[in-house]
Design brief:
This protein has about 270 residues and is an alpha+beta fold. It has five helices and 13 strands.
Amino acid sequence: MVYRPRNVSQKDGSRLQYSNCTMASAATAIDRHTLGRIRSTGAKMRSYQGDQSGGTDLLDARNAWSRGYGQYLDVRLRTSWSTFIAALKGRRGAILVGWYSYIPRAYRGQYSASFGHAVYINEVRPSDGALLMYDPLRSTAIWVPQVYIKRFAGAMRFSNGSHLGYGFAQYALTRVQPAVGAPTPAPSPTTVALRYGGVKITPNTYGTRVAAKQRRSPYIRTDNILRVVKLGTSFKAYQRTNSGTNVGGSRVWFGNAAGTIWMHTSVLRDIKG
């Protein structure tokens, strides 16, 4: 038996409640992830990430988990349906995105349904393969035949109008729930590979003050930019160096555990130790 969280409704009266399906599902998921230790709402989850207009996505949910609660949400983009089901059978819960109208009216929370939506899936029923779905537009969880959820997932639409494709899923996973009575193993310490004169620090989570560049090294060059991340993106630092490029009078850069991602101190603000 796996832990069953509360069903968090997105209809909480907040300003963005009708755009908060992903955030409400993320609140349900963090309840499962922590076995009830952390509980949240769609509105509160929304406040911990940078997108404050319209809908959000799984990466926004990951940022909210990290910034608000210091938890890691495992986002999986376009994997096979069988991989998704295997994760559920492996005692993990999942935020799943798709196109709402592919879930029959008898199972969904409202009549109008021609839009992208996020739900939380807690488990697979062994007897018939049905999935226990927590729809943030419903007040309670409901068992749904797997085929409908599979169609929902495959029909997910991207901004260019294309579909994910039947037989694929895009989702974010909670941690594996230990079997009932099994001891919870202690987390393994993170190995830190010190690079570029880095010194190991107590791991600390930062958020970006502005849209900022993540680099392969603590030097400003055109050939070492990995990506540009938006305001509020979380970054967990394990090392610090004073040997990087001087920006605004400071050579302080922070790096990840592997020493493969670096950000300058000027674009970061402290969130959580």
